[in-house]
Amino acid sequence: MNRYKEWTAVILLILSVCFLLRLAFVRPELPVFGTQLWVVYFGSGEDSFLVPELRFGTPSVAARLQALERGPRLPNLNPVLPPGTKVISYQIEGNLIVVNFSRQLTENHPGGSASELITVYGLVNTLTEDPSLDYVQILVEGSRVTTIAGHVDVSQPLRRDESLIEAR
Question: Which one of 38, 56, 109, 138 is CB 3.0 to 4.6 Å from 149, fit for a cystine?
Fold first, then answer.
């Protein structure tokens, strides 16, 4: 019986040492405190205004564009990018970001002035949440386009427009 207690004590000691070593050298997957809350704008249920949706993480330009491609998490919001739209590339030039989209941005857009405003300024306002960016230039398949769906001039770089953001 004494032998059994000794072995139990040895096993418990080994397990304790392993546990302490794991705590000391292996970092558990905990939220990183350096991450931030940041905003992505999506369309309201009627696409009449933009609604901010909060995200948690590192607010890089790539993360913002990826969030716009994936669409909203909340069920009462609408994506601002038409189905199938992909970001081909982007380039930052000072306080301007030039974003090159796939042709689905124009081909799959549902049309209408309100919907086009939501698309354009959902994109522009999301990207200009980055304090280093003031302007957004939209390209489709590498070329400037006059408009996405016939109502909003996107041939020149665009500035943020907060008048479309829902007042809460």
Answer: 109
Q: Where are the domains of the chain?
A: 36-164
Cα–Cα–Cα angle for 79, 82, 88, nearest 5°? 105
| pLDDT, tens digit (0-9, with 9 covering 90-100), for 90-106 | 999 999 999 999 999 99
- Strand 96-101 and strand 135-140: the pairing is parallel
Residue in the structure block whose two tokens are 């609604």: 51
CA nearest neighbour of 121 among 156, 159, 157: 159
The answer to whether the CB of 61 falls within 8 A of the CB of 90 is yes
Provide long-range contacts, Cβ within 8 A and 24+ apart, for 25-31. Answer: none
Tens of pLDDT, residue by residue over 14-23, are: 766 555 555 5
Look at phi and psi of residue 39 and say left if phi exceeds 0, alpha if psi is from -120 to 50, else beta: beta
pTM as predicted: 0.78
